[in-house]
Amino acid sequence: MKSKSLVSIDQCSKEDILRILTNAQSFEENPNRKVLEGKIAATLFFEPSTRTRLSFETAINRLGGKVVGFSDASTSSSSKGETLKDTILMVSNYADIIIMRHHLEGAARYASEITDVPIVNAGDGANQHPSQTLLDLYSIQKTQGKLDNLTITMVGDLKYGRTVHSLIVGMSHFNPTFHFIAPDELRMPDEQKHFCDKRGIPYYEHTDFTEEIINQTDILYMTRVQRERFTDMEEYERVKNVYILRNEMLENSRDNLRILHPLPRVNEIAYDVDDNPKAYYIQQARNGLFTREAIICEVLGIDN
Ligand code: CP
Question: For the domain bounded by 9-129+288-300, which CATH number is listed?
Answer without folding.
Answer: 3.40.50.1370
